[in-house]
Amino acid sequence: MLKVMTVFGTRPEGIKMAPILKALEKRSNIESVICITAQHREMLDQVLRLFNIKPDYDLNIFKPGQTLTEITTRALEGLEEVINIEKPDILLVQGDTTTVFAGALAAFYHKVKIGHVEAGLRSGNLYSPYPEEANRKLTGVIADFHFAPTERNKQNLLNEDYPEEKIFITGNTVIDALKYTVKDRYIFDNNLLNELDYENKKIILLTSHRRENIGKPMENIFTSLRDIVNNHEEVELVFPIHLNPKVREIAHRILGDNSRIHLIDPLDYEPFTNLMAKSSIVVTDSGGLQEEAPSLGKPVLVVRRETERPEGIEAGTAKLVGTDYKDIYDNLETLLTNKEEYDKMAKAVNPYGDGNAAEKIVEILFKLGNR
After folding, report:
1. Which one from 13, 89, 96, 291 is the annotated catalytic residue?
2. What's the pLDDT tens digit per position in 341-364?
3. β-pairing, 167-169 with 300-302?
4. Tens of pLDDT along 199-248?
5. How far, in Å, are 17, 156, 310, 351 from residue 123 at the CA level?
6. Is 84 exposed, middle or buried (CB count within 10 Å of its CB: 0-12, 13-18, 19+)?
7. In whole angstroms, how far apart are CA 188 and each of 43, 126, 153, 298?
8. Residue 370 has pLDDT above 70, yes or no
9. Looking at the predicted structure, is the pLDDT value of residue 251 above 90?
């Protein structure tokens, strides 16, 4: 019996771990132990409810105003106790959060093998995204097995001299997760979203929360979107605003008081993915949306200076437009007025897998753990 311990602490990790946990449940030859740090409490709880995940251990480390140091030390201390109790064969982490690095480090200190899901992503700038780029590189150094979503991710790891026999191309589990959540006739709890005219209007879905964008870059993003809405009567904007008070202040100052701009509270994962499926264009500084939106046939404009997900850019499903007002405005204008350019992005092939990444990862884990 192979014992696999999964560790995660934020909503994105939970979403991408959920298909793996479902696949582990089906295996009678693997014992699955689930430990959450709850680095993000409320948003993680939403995912646990949605996917009916019942953790064996909840470290509950979240505190308002927590620093990266506090997250790391509290997670390390809590994970040490759990590892000593469970003695797993493999500890599995996903992505690039502080929980990921702390989980991998805790396993390393106890000489437990480490599997890194979504390995090999690189932006090339250690401080953007911050601290995620450092977290994934530091995790890679001590990981035993690297589950890379794409060939490009594998090549990044090979370029850093990781052994090829420890790297496995699997696709991204976020595509698996969409199969659980997107429904043809989805009804939103927020009635505003039910009343939007998705057939006759062009709905732009915005997400923006990156630390490095707060300030002038975010003001540019919001101003360009405001002006696009003002200049196109057929366009409406929906922005589920992040809870960060700095983001909310800029959003209300620039985007408030417009009947075709809808500033709403953050959405749970299920309504968010269904809103994305009904929208026309996605504008984001998020990482995960660059993977999800293309699988739903939605062009993605990435409002960042660099991305660790260049596969979508190369495939034509996403475009890196930066944070300058004119670049954002002009690219939106093109998608709204040029059907050929819109279709070119909407119909491009999603490079992030076929929705079976979780099953592949679990099968590899079983083979690796029994060597």
Report:
1. 96
2. 999 999 988 888 889 999 999 999
3. unpaired
4. 999 999 999 988 889 999 999 999 999 999 999 999 999 999 988 899 99
5. 22, 10, 9, 17
6. exposed
7. 18, 39, 36, 20
8. no
9. yes
* Catalytic residue list contains 185: no
- Catalytically annotated residue among 209, 226, 262, 305: 209
Q: Burial, 370: exposed, middle or buried (Cβ in 10 Å; 0-12, 13-18, 19+)? A: exposed
Kindly report, residue by residue over 293-332, the tens digit of the pLDDT: 888 999 999 999 888 888 889 999 999 999 999 999 999 9
Catalytic residue among 13, 89, 118, 285: 118
> Which amino acid is present at 345?
M
Q: Active site includes 252?
A: no
Q: Which of 226, 242, 260, 262 is catalytic?
A: 242
Strand segments, DSSP code E, in the chain are: 2-8, 30-36, 57-58, 90-94, 113-117, 145-148, 167-169, 202-207, 235-240, 261-264, 281-284, 300-302, 318-320
**pTM check: above 0.85:** no
Distance CA 181, CA 188 (A): 13
Q: Taking the CA of residue 263 as centre, how many other CA atoms within 13 Å lie in the half-sphere pointing to its CB?
A: 19
Instruction: Please indicate whether residue 96 is annotated as part of the active site.
Output: yes
- pLDDT value at position 371? 62
Question: What DSSP string describes 204-264?
Answer: EEEE---GGGTTHHHHHHHHHHHHHHHH-TTEEEEEE--S-HHHHHHHHHHH-S-TTEEEE
Does 253 participate in catalysis according to the annotation?
A: no
Point out the catalytic residue in the list 13, 132, 285, 308: 132
